[in-house]
TrEMBL record:
Residues 1-27, 37-47 have a biased composition (Basic and acidic residues). The keyword Oxidoreductase applies. This is Catalase. Belongs to the catalase family. Keywords: Heme, Hydrogen peroxide, Iron, Metal-binding, Oxidoreductase, Peroxidase. It comes from Methanoculleus sediminis. The gene is katE. Residues 519-531 have a biased composition (Polar residues). Its cofactor is heme. The lineage of its organism: Archaea, Methanobacteriati, Methanobacteriota, Stenosarchaea group, Methanomicrobia. It catalyses: 2 H2O2 = O2 + 2 H2O. One of its GO terms (biological process) is response to oxidative stress. Residues 1-47, 511-531 are annotated as: Disordered. GO terms for molecular function: catalase activity; heme binding; metal ion binding. Residues 29-417 form the Catalase core domain.
Length: 707
């Protein structure tokens, strides 16, 4: 066994243990370890006199505090991290020599950071934005970083335009508004002038930009990489993550409300899920293209504004990642983690994708200043498990105590160590690609089809998804004050789909395009639609149970237990915290009160039977709760007298069973009702099915709900 494999037996968690400090230490000390006797008053010349410079404890405490902030990431400033592990399903030896992709029995530690892109570090989680999905694999051959997003394409084809893109979407220069939003003039001005952005715009205006949870979104490497096997044979690859819980989104109105009620919504969801043992799981997939087929597609496979449609290049699911531990310290782990697409291991190589090429420079460059100099790889979260050994020395915050006098190669004094490794010894050998060409600022012609895949995406959406995209355009462009900017975007979209351009124009007060655009294709790629995602589980869904004095205890206990058994998290909500009494004198503990929670943070709501319905139907809070859940297309269940609240809340267009009836429960558009004499088991089954569907978009056709 060679040296690298031995170190893998030490887990990342064990490595981090060396740096963990628990709060059980008895005495407060200075950074020099000297015990402090008093920390409430500074050292003064007399009880009412000035503070003395010699108060080293005061000075040290304040000095450290004054320097606690580091620059936030220029993009992806707001993020949340988690530890976990990755396992491959079967040896990938035929395609790659990467050691972590060979042995299904091996667990490779990972750290993942999910993020929004545009907002500052303290911005809200639920804004319309791309989500970052960056994974650091601590492999036995060194760190491999897959720095991806939850959308498979990007805004631009060449990294040289990245500063322009980011300047346009960030808050405007003169007044620093708006926060964490693309809905303003400069971004849409940029869009209208850059046709290559069109495909990505379709994704950003779709429901993908509003994930219900970091645990319920896809991940994509976006750029084209290579797999290289031990014989040196290479294939082009694209990487994918897919969540086992399916890809689910919030509703736009809901995201805006959550941004106020719980700006940490996605962060909290990830944290709580891991604490409760609902470990997020993602399957890892690859699409592979043989080198010989490089030019056999309508698109250029090095163009990051294009997908490789699954119909043409199937995805092979080769492994699974499980996130099972929250960080102990947000700053030290999640804030200081540093990802870089250039961090690859033998068996995974780069391509000439011009977006990727520029990224290879940018990440290290930004980290040098963000993390205070060239030694940030020594920060515990960034350390490799394979020992790093080279002749780099000194610089700010150097931690490693290198021994010996030589720090150069070749050397005789240090027996010529550390020396380069051959490929057989695990050395990274860059794939030998033959390159011939002129030194020019240009791109290949195939990059210039900006509309076919935007149209493919549009064609693949369900009616509800299409409607959401149109509404998103109405919001985003509706916020643009310059009508010329708005018009230019409508003209751009006219190249994708004439009808879509007309629908957008209608909502934003600009004339439709003079000539309806020619359709750029009728092809579909069905898996692009979220309608095809996993909809057979209610695991980790939050279900609100509204209960006031007089609720039906036995029924609540039965439904609550059934939901729990299926992996959901039911919570009792009542006017006040404490206990609430049932009709037959039993009690149940309230989880959240009317002032501490709101319908927008739940996935479903259930109104039990019992006399409490008389109170509920006269409470604005309860009426609004149900009403809003209905508007946001969430599953709603009601039994017996609970149905009265549905009626009081103004829900129309859905048939309820009679409150006092018997028989099976009835489910319509995700509203499940069961009479007080009815079959609660059938209610539970139908309610679970409705929750598993996540949202019931057919309700959106009934715009009558005022919430
Ligand atoms: Fe980037 C951060 C993803 C293009 C320059 N990027 C960053 C993060 C993610 C991505 C997930 C946050 C990592 C973390 O959690 O710390 N970026 C992408 C994807 C791209 C992409 C999927 C397209 C394929 N990025 C891109 C380009 C450039 C950058 C073209 C510049 C040439 N990205 C950066 C950066 C950041 C960054 C400025 C900010 C903080 C950092 O790197 O460490 O260097």
């Amino acid at each position: 066994m060679d040296e690298r494999r031995k170190v893998d037996e030490k887990s990342k968690q064990e490595q981090l243990d060396e740096f963990r400090q628990d709060p059980e230490r008895e005495y407060l000390t200075t950074n020099q370890g000297v015990r402090v006797s008093h920390t409430d008053d500074s050292l003064k010349a007399g009880e009412r006199g000035p503070t003395l410079l010699e108060d080293f404890h005061f000075r040290e405490k304040l000095t450290h505090f004054d320097h606690e902030r580091i620059p936030e990431r220029v993009v992806h400033a707001r993020g949340s991290g988690a530890h976990g592990y990755f396992q491959v399903y079967e040896p990938m030896t035929e395609y790659t020599r990467a050691a972590f992709l060979q042995d299904p029995g091996k667990k490779t530690p990972v750290f993942v950071r999910f993020s929004t892109v545009v907002g500052f570090r303290g911005s809200a989680d639920t804004v319309r934005d791309v989500r970052g999905f960056a994974t650091k694999f601590y492999t036995e051959e060194g760190n491999y970083d897959l720095v991806g997003n939850n959308m498979p394409v990007f805004f631009i084809v060449d990294a040289i335009k990245f500063p322009d893109l980011v300047h346009s979407i960030k808050p405007e220069q003169h007044h620093q508004m708006p926060q964490a939003s693309a809905a303003h003039d400069t971004f849409w001005d940029f869009v209208g002038n850059l046709p290559e952005i069109t495909h990505m715009i379709m994704w950003v205006l779709s429901d993908r930009a509003l994930p219900r949870s970091y645990r319920m979104m896809d991940g994509f490497g976006v750029n084209t990489f290579r797999f290289v096997n031990a014989e040196g044979k290479a294939r082009f690859v694209k990487f994918h993550w897919r969540p086992l819980l399916g890809v689910h989104s919030l509703v736009w109105d809901e995201t805006q409300k959550i941004a106020g009620k719980d700006p940490d919504f996605n962060r909290r969801d990830l944290w709580e899920a891991i604490e409760m043992g609902d470990y997020p799981e993602f399957e890892f997939g690859v699409q592979m293209i043989e080198e010989a087929d490089e030019h056999n597609f309508d698109f250029d496979i090095l163009d990051a504004t294009k997908i490789w449609p699954e119909e043409e290049v199937p995805i092979r699911w080769i492994g699974k990642m499980t996130l099972n531990k929250n960080p102990d310290n947000f700053f030290v782990e999640t804030e200081q983690v540093a990802f870089c697409p250039a961090n690859v291991v033998p068996g995974i190589d780069l391509s000439n994708d011009p977006l990727l090429q520029g990224r290879l420079f940018s990440y290290l460059d930004t980290q040098l200043i963000r993390l205070g100099g060239p030694n940030f790889q020594e920060i515990p979260i960034n350390r490799t498990l394979a020992p790093a050994a080279n002749n780099q020395r000194e610089g700010y915050n150097r931690m490693t105590i290198n021994r010996g006098e030589s720090s150069y190669f070749p050397n005789a004094l240090g027996e010529n160590k550390p020396r380069p490794a051959t490929a057989k010894e695990g050395g990274f050998v860059h794939y030998q690609e033959k390159i011939e060409g002129k030194k020019i600022r240009a791109r290949s012609e195939k990059f210039n089809d900006h509309f076919s895949q935007a149209k493919l995406f549009w064609n693949s959406m369900s009616d509800a998804e299409k409607e959401h995209i149109v509404k998103a355009f109405h919001f985003e462009l509706g916020k643009v004050s310059d009508s010329e900017v708005r018009k230019k975007v409508v003209d751009l979209i006219n190249n994708v789909d004439g009808d879509l351009a007309i629908r957008i124009a209608e909502g934003i007060g600009v004339p439709p395009p003079a000539e309806k655009g020619a359709s750029s294709g009728t092809k579909k790629s069905p898996n692009l639609s979220q309608e095809r995602t996993v909809m057979d589980t209610i695991k980790s869904r939050k279900v609100a149970i509204l209960a006031m004095e007089g609720y039906n205890h036995d029924e609540v206990m039965q439904v609550k237990q059934a939901l729990k058994d299926a992996g959901a998290h039911p919570q009792i909500i009542s006017q006040f915290h404490g206990m609430v009494r049932s009709a037959d004198g039993k009690e149940i503990e309230v989880d959240k009160s009317y002032v501490t929670t709101t319908s927008v943070v739940y996935d479903a709501v259930y109104i039990p039977g019992g006399m409490h319905a008389e109170t509920l139907k006269n409470q604005g809070y309860a009426i609004h709760f149900v009403n809003e859940a209905f508007k946001h297309c969430k599953p709603i269940g009601a039994i017996g007298e609970g149905i009265e609240l549905l009626k009081a809340s103004g829900i129309k267009g859905v048939a309820f069973v009679d409150a006092g009836s018997g028989g099976e429960a009835v489910s319509e558009m995700g509203v499940v009702t069961c009479g007080s004499q009815g079959d609660v088991n059938s209610f539970v089954e139908q309610f679970k099915t409705a929750i598993a569907r996540h949202r019931h978009w057919d309700r959106e056709k009934k715009e009558q709900v005022p919430a």
